[in-house]
Design goal:
This protein is α+β, with helices and mostly antiparallel strands and 78 residues long. It contains two helices and two strands; from the N terminus they run H-E-H-E. It has one domain: Leucine Dehydrogenase, chain A, domain 1 (Rossmann fold), CATH 3.40.50.
């Protein structure tokens, strides 16, 4: 078996393009705008960066992005 090198950036770009195409089809064909909702609990800097990047990519694909920020002391049940 021969190893195959995968270009991760190119693969990710292709996936994002496919998602954007499907989103456009949902909008045009059914009037549906899919979205991503994220709940961020606390102020962890790494989590903030992750959530921000997900929001940017979501909007770039034509989707709606929703962020819900909660205090670190928020109980799990809430």
């Amino acid at each position: 078996m021969v190893a195959q090198i995968i270009d991760g950036k190119a693969f990710a770009a292709k996936v994002r393009e496919q998602v954007a195409t499907h989103v456009a089809g949902l909008k045009a064909g059914h009037g549906i705008v899919p979205g991503l909702a994220v709940v961020l609990v606390g102020q962890d800097p790494a989590s903030q960066v992750y959530v921000k990047n997900k929001g940017v990519q979501t909007v770039a694909a034509g989707m709606a992005s929703f962020e819900h920020k909660l205090d670190a002391a928020t109980p799990e049940a809430e």
